[in-house]
Amino acid sequence: MMIFFLFIPFAISAHDKFILVTVPKCGSHLIIHVLYEMLHKNDQRQLRSDYQDFLHELMIAERRGTYLSTHQPSSQEAIEFVKDHGYKVIFIIRDPRDQLVSLMYYNQQGYWPQLPISQLSQSEQIEELITGNCYGYQAYEDCFSNRLGWIDLGPEITYVTTFEKLIGIHGGGSDELQMQEIMNIGAHIGVSLLRKRCQKIAQAAYGKGVHVSKRNDRFMASQFF
């Protein structure tokens, strides 16, 4: 009699259905990698931030048995849909000053041709991202404030994590805070994690496309706040 062994390199974790909402430049790649190591599932990524695209990509995520990651603004219709259909939300934010610096560096790479501010000094770039005085677009307001409504769903639906808690010691944070935060995220979506598993998740997630752009002594975004 021949006996066959099926080797499964990892188990796919069962979890509650949820969406991941990230504010641009607040740690999207970091938390997606954490969730991959936790669930062994790739996200379904929404690339455009309009409501119809949100519904379309969410439907695809459901079919794939995975979760949607999105920058979707917290419009009333999106929030009502999530509440009515029993989704949980993981929401990540970051120190607004560091997010603003990261946004500046992102824009310098030419991703927003409608906002050609790279020829300005860094101080002028930061001021323009906040005020929109030159080009009429308050990029910081658009990226940050119009997504904060997801928090208003309350802690039973939305778990709010932060880049600073999740980055760990290799990114200038705390290993203890990182371990606890990974556990908290798992608990919110119905995944129970032992500390040893959290350590493996943290070690595997950091460095996979994660880049830390922070304020420094040479350039302090806090001068604008």
Describe the structure.
- With 225 residues, the protein is α/β, with parallel strands linked by helices.
- It has a domain at 18-94 and 147-207: P-loop containing nucleotide triphosphate hydrolases (Rossmann fold, 3-Layer(aba) Sandwich).
- It has nine helices and five strands; from the N terminus they run βαβαβαβαααβααα.
- The chain has helices spanning 28-39, 51-64, 76-84, 96-108, 122-131, 139-143, 163-166, 175-188, 195-205; strands spanning 18-22, 44-45, 68-70, 88-93, 158-162.
- Strands 2-3-1-4-5 form a five-stranded parallel β-sheet.
- Strand 2 (44-45), helix 2 (51-64) and strand 3 form a beta-alpha-beta unit.
- The chain is globular.
Keywords:
225 residues, alpha/beta, Rossmann fold, disordered N terminus, disordered C terminus
Summarize, please:
By secondary structure, the chain is of the alpha/beta class.
Itemize the secondary structure elements and their pairings.
Elements: E1 18-22, H1 28-39, E2 44-45, H2 51-64, E3 68-70, H3 76-84, E4 88-93, H4 96-108, H5 122-131, H6 139-143, E5 158-162, H7 163-166, H8 175-188, H9 195-205
Parallel strand pairs: 1-3, 1-4, 2-3, 4-5
Helix pairs in contact: 1-9, 4-5, 8-9
Using DSSP, what is the number of strands? 5
Largest sheet composition:
5 strands, parallel
Strand residue content:
5-15%
CATH superfamily grouping of the domain at 18-94 and 147-207: P-loop containing nucleotide triphosphate hydrolases
Uncertain regions spanning at least 5 consecutive residues: 1-12, 215-225
Helical segment count = 9
